[in-house]
Design a protein that fits this description.
This protein is α/β, with parallel strands linked by helices. The chain has one domain: Nitrilase/N-carbamoyl-D-aminoacid amidohydrolase (4-Layer Sandwich). Helices cover about 25% and strands about 30% of the residues. Helix 1 packs parallel to helix 3.
């Protein structure tokens, strides 16, 4: 399987509309890939908190339309990163705004929406995303030819229990979009490798370049195999990281070193 991680830069002088068109063009250029991945909140910038509400879109808004068409044109599976989603108001009352979510979109090669994942772990503690956006509730997996993908977003990487839940749902490859800050880049690499090793799964983690609201981004998108070996890693700037990997290595690794079979705590409750 060939994956292309589009580590695009978020430039505050570039409008969202122009960046959306540019990202769609980059997706179309990846027609030789099987899977293409974009970063977290690449339309606004992951730390541009003051822009979330103004730039929020409905699920099937302009980014959805542009990415669906790009996936179809390229004939690829596309994890289109995440957008600030404005969900419908619960009451449906005119003029009432619904909640915001940090929502990832995954499209099939025909341009159909295969999955939408609302980020469960919001960053910021008592400010920023943590107070501006609502939390998702359900882990999400997507079946691709040859592998089942578990979807995660940025800060999720720090919570191993989510990845265990994805494994229990059949995930063999984790695809994560992020806007990870440069000052914590060492954690980015460490945690990506840890999630791969402990779950015996591939990790494809795509970050952004540039600066979001004054916060320099780490870049260094990374692909890690089930043994924790780094197959490819980008630099700090805008870059397309393309790597070929064998999804069958997951089953081989789990068979040769069946550590997951020795789990005792946190197993799903069997149906009665």
């Amino acid at each position: 399987m060939r994956a292309s991680l589009l580590q695009i830069a978020v430039d505050e002088d570039e409008s969202v509309e122009v960046r959306r068109l540019r990202a769609a063009a980059l997706v179309r250029e990846q027609a030789t890939a099987d899977l293409v991945v974009l970063p977290e909140l690449w339309t606004t910038g992951a730390f541009a908190y003051e822009r979330f509400a103004d730039e929020a879109e409905p699920l099937k808004g302009p980014t959805y339309e542009a990415m669906a068409q790009a996936a179809s044109d390229a004939g690829v599976w596309l994890h289109a990163g995440s957008i600030p989603e404005r969900a419908p108001a619960a009451s449906g009352s005119a003029g009432e705004e619904g909640p915001l979510y940090n929502t990832s979109l995954v499209f099939s090669p025909s341009g159909e929406l295969a999955a939408a994942y609302r980020k469960i772990h919001r960053f910021g503690f008592d400010k920023g995303e943590a107070v501006l956006m609502s939390a998702g509730e359900e882990p999400v997996t997507v079946r691709l030819p040859g592998t089942t993908v578990g979807v995660a977003t940025c800060y999720d990487l720090r919570f191993p229990e989510l990845f265990r839940a994805l494994v229990d749902a059949g995930a063999e490859t984790f695809v994560l979009s992020a806007g990870w800050p440069e000052r914590r880049r060492a954690h980015w690499t460490l945690l990506a490798r840890a999630r791969a090793v402990e779950n015996q799964a591939f990790v494809l983690a795509c970050g952004t370049a540039g600066t979001h609201a004054g916060v320099p981004q780490a870049g260094h998108s990374i692909v890690v195999d089930p043994w924790g070996e780094v197959l490819a890693e980008a630099g700090p700037g805008e870059e397309i990281l393309t790597v070929d990997f064998d999804p069958g290595a997951v089953a081989t690794t789990r068979d040769l070193f069946p550590a997951l079979k020795d789990r005792v705590l946190g197993l799903p409750t069997p149906p009665r």
